[in-house]
Structures are given as C-alpha cells and as structure tokens.
Amino acid sequence: MKHLFIGSTIVLAFAAPAEASEFDFRGATIVGTAYFQNAPDIDVDWTTASLGASFELGLGGGFFAQKDATFQGYDMPWANYKLGSFGGHLGYEVGDGINVGAFGVGEFWDDGTGEMIVGGEVAGRMDNFFYEGYGAYVFDPLEGTGFEQYHVEATGGYAFGNGFGIELGVHYGAGDLRFTDRMWQGLASVSYEVAPDMSVEAGYVYSDSGTDIWDAQAFKLALKKDIGGGTTFSQRNYLSLHNGY
Questions:
Q1: Which end of the chain, N or C, is surrounded by fewer C-beta atoms within 10 Å?
Q2: Is the pTM of this model over 0.70?
Q3: Beta-carbon neighbour count of residue 80 at 10 Å?
Q4: Which of 150, 71, 157 is nearest to 109 (CA)?
Q5: Domains of the chain (ranges, CATH numbers)
C-alpha cells in the first residue's frame, strides 16, 4: 500500500501544472480492449483485456493535461495476472493539428510489484489523415530489481467520410520482455463509427519475438466512447505498450 500511494502521487503530479487558476474541460474517452493471442509454433493461446478512462483539461497557452486510469488482465495457460495503471500526460498544441507531449504512468500488479513508464509522444491530424507515435522507458523505481524495457511505436491512418477508418503501424520493444529481449510488431486495424462519438475497432497484430518459439499473432477488438471531443493521446499502460502481448 505504501508503494501504491507513493507511485500514485508521483504519476498524478507528473501532469499537474505548477500554477493554474482555471481548467478548461476538453473531453474524455472510455475504451474497452480485448486481444486473443496465439503462438502457433507451440500451440499456446492466451487472452488479455483492458478497460480504461481518461479526461483532458486545457491549461491555457496551448498547454493541456490528460489523466488516464486503466484496469488490465492477462488470462494465460500457466497463470492469471491483474494490474491497474494511473498516468498523466502534459501536452502542447504546436499548431497545424500537431500535438506533442510527455507522459508518466504507474503500474501496480496484483502480486504487489509495480513499474513506472515515462516517455514522449506526438499526435496529429491533417484533414482525414491521422497519426500518433511515442517512445517509452519502463523501469522499477520501487523494488530496485533492475527491470527495464524500451518501446517505440508509430501509427498512421485515414478516416473515410462514411464512418470507416483504417490504421497501420509498427512497434519495437527491447529489454526484459516476457519471453525474449526484443520484439517487432506489425499493426493493422479497421474501425467503424457505430454511433456519434462511439466506434468499434477490429485489428490484427503480428509479433516477431526473434525466438522462433514465441512469435504470435493477435486479434484485437475494441470499443471506444468519446465525450466532448475525446482526448488527444491514446491511453498509455502496460498492455497498450505490448499491444496485448
């Protein structure tokens, strides 16, 4: 509990402005995501899922803050894991639809362990084209285990006028990953706006672990609800950094 309190305090303070006399509510987002993973070389399946909520506040002068909270679960053949994350982003509107930011996230596992995630990000839109990218560093500041991960991701897509959208991306991770020390992932998804400010997404992720054993393919299903325009950045958490792996 002490570690949970300290970690939460660090993360929630990350995106809080030093001085702010007025906050402008800009939007909120609720996202539920599920992945079905399959490692065909060893015929192993597992599922992962998350439910997250975020909201965004304008701070003035082009700056804004976004806060995230996410619950995540892993259902694997050998064990089940649950974890919660609390995070914040401090963003800045550069102009021409471009936003840059920095983020910090605290992850708290059900076995009492935890990690911190820090990084930088960019998100933008040009007419119907949209894109997002980030770099992240995952480490353990509380237990001192030396646990480390590095992640870089870039995605881009196109929103059609009929409610459909497509998105493609690439992800690279390295360090103390679950089954390997590095991972390439290819990402592809199709989304459809089923109602105003509500969309469903179906996606595919191929993970190349470099081990010839733990290569995997995943099928993703997500439901997103935006409120008041939604949020600028995607939610950052352990599950999203690994695209369900």
A1: N
A2: yes
A3: 11
A4: 71
A5: 2-241 (2.40.160.40)
